[in-house]
Write a structure and sequence with these properties.
It is built from four helices and 22 strands. The two termini are 80 Å apart. It is α+β, with helices and mostly antiparallel strands.
Amino acid sequence: MLLAVLITVVLILMRPKPVVRDVEEFAPSIKVIKAEKNDIPVKVTAYGTARPASVVEISSEVKGIIVESKNLNTGNFVQKDEVILQIDPRDYDIQILLAQAEILKIEASIKEVERKLQDDKERLATLERESQLSEDNFNRMKSLFDKKAISQSELDKSEQSLMTSKNAYISLKSATLQYPIQINSLNASLDAAKAKLEQAKLDRSRCTISSPFTGRIKWSDIDAGQYLTPGMKLLTIADDSSIEIAVSIDSSDSLMLGLINNKPQNSYSNWFTAPELSAQIRAIDSPEYIPSVKGKVLRVENYSEETRTVTLVFGIDNKNDTNSPLLADGMFCKVEIFGSPVRDAVEIPRSAIQFKGRIAIVDQSNRVFQKDATIIFRGKDYCIATKGIENGDLVVISRLPFGMLDGAKVKPVIQPND
């Protein structure tokens, strides 16, 4: 038993010592980019549908039968001031003649009343003189009667003559006072007749319908010989030379584009303004060899509290050198909006944003560390950071492996900055 213990001890003392080897730390490859601080232009991508800036619905303003119309099929073009439709004007020609005849009739009546007034004024002066003479004669006859020079019958005859002349004077004077009233009434009728004439002429002019501008017929519902009534919708004309595109952007993007109004609160202004923003616009289905169209913001249309988005309306001059439209009504377009550049900032891919909005930096010893950064803009493919990233930092642009801790060794693979 003791011998066995001794042998065991000898064997333990004689066993070779373990070889100590250095184990190399595993370093996974991680894509990085080298941060470069620059003045970075802001670009926001949005989408919208092209619509003509001017669309006019033309309706009939008078009733009548269509006696002439040009080819008004949907898609055809019409020129400015071109006659596109003619309604039978004969009813309105008759109304004009009737109104003119009524005016002549009333004017003749006014002249007749004015002539009578002048004649009666002259007669009134005569009657006034006759009345005065009758009164003088009556006074003389009364004096004679008092002296018993004439009889009672002669005095009564003189008084009767006086009353007759006075009644004639009063009746005629009353008649002359009515003439101005008649003239005023006739003048009112004359004004009404002239208004009817102007209305008839206006209705007559509305029998001819012309295009308000050069444009494309977007919709039409017209047949030759069709009877029209006032208010009936006839056709829609669109001016394709000027196109508008309404796009919605996130409210945070509107801040980056300078849409927030920074005027003092006591000044009268809207919260959103329309700065000088430009955009490159391209139809989604257009081939790459067709150049994009330059547009500019026209107005801030509205803010949606449900989606927290701002709707911008961009306008373009929709003609090229050949005077043909660049975008068609209804085209779905991609709109790239360019704002003022952000000073002294770093552009990183959106994939560089790690968990909880942090970023990962690889230091000079190839150790990775996560840190906070100030991300002021998040686009679809890229972000803009103003703080937390220094010039020359190696920024990880892919998701870190699950469970990787700060200080882990990595093998950075530097990617080109696009």
